[in-house]
Specification:
homodimer, 450 residues, Dihydrodipicolinate Reductase, domain 2, Alpha-Beta Plaits, elongated, amino-acid biosynthesis (chains A, B), ACT_dom (chains A, B), EC 1.1.1.3 (chains A, B), NAD(P)-bd_dom_sf (chains A, B)
Chain lengths: 450, 450
């Protein structure tokens, strides 16, 4: 053990680790700032200096608040894979395809360690990239890809490595959590709050990656792969976003003692793995229900360790740069773990279970004509599919002074079920939606313990 | 990077890592159970099997729920330092001195990696042990020493290694948190709740290590050393326990919008490091205020990463064994980090700042005779020491039907100050305690943002 001079101790290699950074957006510029501001801390922790020697970005003239003098500039990021003056490639371009994928692939093929913050790339091509990294015998790390500054990957892949994890997930998208928190606090509609979040810079001009749950799904797929030691096929992750959440749902959730959060959840079952992203009702006293605004939270649960929750900033220049730099320190020390926590020998992607196999409690909100027999009709359908009810909310309509509103105005009807198989729920909902008294599509939100 | 076959990849050493376990109490027996129950998970994650080959404990005949057949038994734990059939010594005996210290010292001197859960040993002798480990070029790890199953040490020492941490701490003792939670929920007195906790096995027969804050101080000293890259002299940590907390304080805290938690807190200041353990009022909406019962929470804050909180089970067989096994997996893979996160070259212990240098907001509860002029007298003293008040609570005494209770019964008077230097507070409190209208010692609890 001591023969190789390891043990993370002094007296080892003190030559600088030379970094090439591809992409100088928020995270790339933040990394350069961090490595400069914390130069001596990083050198102490890494056992040697870590220096940026080359960068690649599209626009050389843009002011990023960092001095690029003395750095080699590459217009083509791919050149970093072979620049002889760098030891590690840091890919901060983003996107599952295109130049980011080509650069990471080329760097690994060239036997060069890679650090990336690219969640889409790792979620979608992680199995293939892990095999490349293993063949080359170099690390591929991505702490910054999940939950920003929270060392969630290290916690799951190393800290909990000895346990049989049964569940992993959490609040993985700060934009959605900000929007849901603001909707709850203000009573405003999704579109209003989204517009405000865009104005404040918390949401992109094209918000779909965030609000449709795709970003959270990338992160969930990565966490699930690490927790269960095997990459999860991204296409099999069930994804629903938050666009359909109505201010009414937040009001009813509160009345029932819940909050609504967009959660990513992966669970190990006897018959396979569940991996899903969707809004959830969580009990308002659950720790995860308290995580508001742009904060992220990662929950993991194992047979021996019990339940853990890690909470912090999931995005932004500083937190994300900290995560990238932590990966670089590990590499500088020669510390590494296989991409999915174990050798990829014989490791194939696992398909997550289909939606029909989920088994949850459900909150249903229907818009119904307020006339006799509606509840009987709806509950009869649920009974036919073996769905039993835990509670029901129907508020009498407000007395109207308007004599033209005489017959059957619409009112919301909220039902909460006991745990039931989602296949039954899907069929029951289709039948309920077709009832003459039901207006529009029923809203369905799953209920989680948190 | 790839030349040494590292990168945590396959194709490396697949010989088993052989473990000698000293101490077969709850954690030792739990570790043996975990390594057997999760044998294949651990082997996959470690890249090689991890097997217990030798054990040392006092009583060979005791039933621990584990089969000891096939293991070498040592009556003298020290023998593990030289048993030729083990690669790593796991010290689970406990105690800062005696056999635990001798074993860890001897094992490191023999060039053997050590894993320990011994917070007292690391807190008090960590500087000296780090130097020994570094000289031998072997790891000394102790993830289980702080916050049980929460990978707090890995998070602070590796995950946040690139940032300049300014603050670390949290709820570090589950027994105290259980007692404070039960006192708040039931309104009962400390002694009652302690007796119940002892009956339930949440508190020891001799509870002083827990309730006097010593256990939390051990953990805080370790966290502070890791966060600031330099061991903190344990004797300089300011420690107060929870025995003096009155049920009244919990009631007043609630009325003021706070909860009371025993926190360990270390802070980097311009003029040095604060390291202290004491009860705190924290705003009831702060995330750490929500962490109840036996749960622990570790908070860290850095210039780049912002604020993180990690929450989970801080003790118990399963969580603690998980942490020990995670350290073993790191060692099996050849991954290691210096004891205090950096080389010990020229690294001396740092003395934490004295109590007089603290600068806090304070909650004061006085027991005063209910007669005119008392408030004027008390507030005059505070004014003399430059302490300004933020709020005051005094409830009129309940009207008494007892004609013998006629003159000047005692009533509680609660004052909340603005931020002030503790040296001023100490002197002001001595003067206040000496006022004729003040009965007994004033209670003082610091207020933290959480």
């Amino acid at each position: 053990m001591s023969a190789d001079g390891k043990g993370g101790q002094a007296g080892g290699d003190t030559t600088p680790l030379r970094i090439g950074v591809a992409g100088l957006g928020t995270v790339g510029a933040g990394l350069v700032k961090l490595l400069r501001a914390n130069e001596s801390i990083v050198a102490d922790r890494a056992g040697r200096p870590i220096v940026v020697t080359a960068v690649a970005a599209r626009d050389r003239t843009r002011d990023r608040g960092i001095d690029l003098a003395g750095l080699t500039w590459h217009d083509d990021a791919l050149a970093l894979a072979h620049d002889p003056d760098i030891d590690v490639v840091v890919e901060l371009i983003g996107g599952a395809e295109g130049i980011a994928r080509r650069l990471v692939t080329a760097a690994l093929q060239a036997g060069r360690p890679v650090v990336t913050a690219n969640k889409a790339l790792v979620a979608i091509h992680g199995a293939e990239l892990a095999a490349l990294a293993e063949r080359a015998g170099v690390p591929l790390t991505f702490e910054a890809a999940v939950a920003g500054g929270i060392p969630a990957i290290k916690a799951v892949r190393e800290g909990l490595a000895a346990d049989r994890l049964v569940r992993v997930g959490g609040i993985l998208n700060g934009t959605c959590n900000y929007i849901m928190t603001a909707m709850r606090e203000s009573g405003r509609a999704f579109a209003d709050v989204l517009a405000e979040a865009q104005a404040l810079g918390y949401a992109e001009a094209d918000p779909s990656t965030d609000v449709d749950g795709i970003d959270a799904a990338h992160k969930l797929a990565i966490l699930a792969g690490l927790a269960f030691g095997r990459p999860v096929a991204f296409s099999s992750v069930h994804v629903e976003g938050i666009r359909a959440i109505d201010a009414l749902d937040l009001t009813f959730a509160r009345e029932l003692g819940y909050r609504i959060k967009l959660l990513g959840l992966a669970r190990r079952r006897e018959d396979g793995i569940e991996a899903r992203v969707h809004p959830c009702l969580v009990p308002e006293r659950a720790p995860i229900a308290q995580v508001d605004g742009v904060f992220n939270a990662v929950v993991a649960e194992g047979a021996f360790v019990g339940r853990l929750m890690l909470e912090g900033r999931g995005a932004g220049e500083g937190p994300t740069a900290t995560a990238v730099a932590a990966d670089l320190i590990d590499i500088a020390r020669g510390n590494a773990v296989p991409v999915w926590g174990r050798s990829t020998d014989g490791l194939t992607q696992v398909e997550a279970l289909p939606r029909a196999a989920f088994n949850e409690e459900y909150y249903l909100r229907l818009n119904v004509h307020d006339r006799p027999g509606v509840i009987a009709d709806v509950t009869a359908v649920l009974r036919d599919y073996g769905v039993s009810l835990r509670s029901m909310l129907q508020h009498g309509r407000a007395a109207s002074d308007d004599p033209t509103v005489a017959d059957a105005p619409s009112v919301p009807l909220v039902l909460v079920t006991h745990r039931t198989r989602e296949s039954a729920m899907i069929e029951a909902l289709a039948r309920i939606a077709a009832l003459p008294a039901v207006i529009g599509d029923p809203a369905m939100i799953r209920i989680e313990a948190g």
